[in-house]
Amino acid sequence: MEIHRYEKIWLAGALLLIVGFIATVSYGAVGAGIAMVDDEGGQIDPNAVEEHPKFGEPGTYADGPNEYDVYVVAYQFGFEPGTQEPIRVPAGSEVTFHVTSRDVVHGFEVVGTNANTMVIPGQISTITVQFEEGSEDKYGLLCNEYCGSAHHAMEGRIEVVPQSQWNESMEVN
Ligand code: CUA
Q1: How far is CA 114 from CA 117, 148, 171, in A?
Q2: Tens digits of per-residue pLDDT, 63-95?
Q3: Do residues 77 and 1 both lie within one domain?
Q4: Which of 3, 78, 90, 118 has minimal Cβ neighbours within 10 Å of its Cβ?
């Protein structure tokens, strides 16, 4: 069977498109570090968040050399800590955010980075972020899941404190 030259080019092009689409979809699904909120972070009773040993007193907890855990409660319409007072983390550290909601679904995005998670009542979302020494010292926080009438105003701040200025009074213990 004779296949015309142009027919072959079209076939090759169409095949390339299909392979390309599959590649981008696969990359988007698994390659970019994107994952569903799952049970990894644990579960919590959304009506008794304040009874949790860490979420009851949310904030920054030391967890080994240069490793910190930050517990954050999202609510309509803010983050605790984050909105009333900034989340403080020391520079040059690895920080794992544990975020939950006490009312509806929210988002937790560190603006300008790829750190971003959905926050679901009953679930604890965890994301780990490396804050380099000498990196930006302030980051914004945003909710990017529609959560009610003041969704657009739900925001917060992270302050990266230089190691030399970090002291234990900035931690919850
Ligand atoms: Cu919280 Cu939108």
Answers
A1: 9, 24, 25
A2: 888 899 999 999 999 999 999 999 999 998 999
A3: no
A4: 3
Question: Residue 139 CA to chain centroid, in angstroms?
Answer: 13
The DSSP element (H or E) to which 61 belongs, if any, is strand 59-62
Whether 71 and 100 map to the same domain: the answer is yes
Q: What pTM did the predictor assign?
A: 0.82
3-state secondary structure string, 87-151? EEEECCEEEEEEEEECCCCEEEEECCCCCEEEECCCECEEEEEEECCCCCCEEEEECCCCCCCCH
Domain that holds residue 13: 1-34
The total of structural domains in the chain comes to 2
Nearest ligand 1 atom to alpha carbon 119: 1
What is the rounded CA–CA span in Å between residue 108 and residue 125? Answer: 9
CA of 77 to the centre of ligand 1 (A): 6
Token reading at 153: 């105003």
- Confidence check: pLDDT of 18 > 70: yes
The answer on 66 and 79 residing in a single domain is: yes
Q: Which two tokens stand for residue 137?
A: 């010292």
Q: Is 141 in the pocket of ligand 1 (CB under 6 A)?
A: no
Asked if 25 and 45 sit in the same domain, the reply is no
165: closest CA among 95, 114, 89? 89
Q: What is the pLDDT of residues 49-67, one digit of tens each?
A: 889 999 999 999 988 888 9
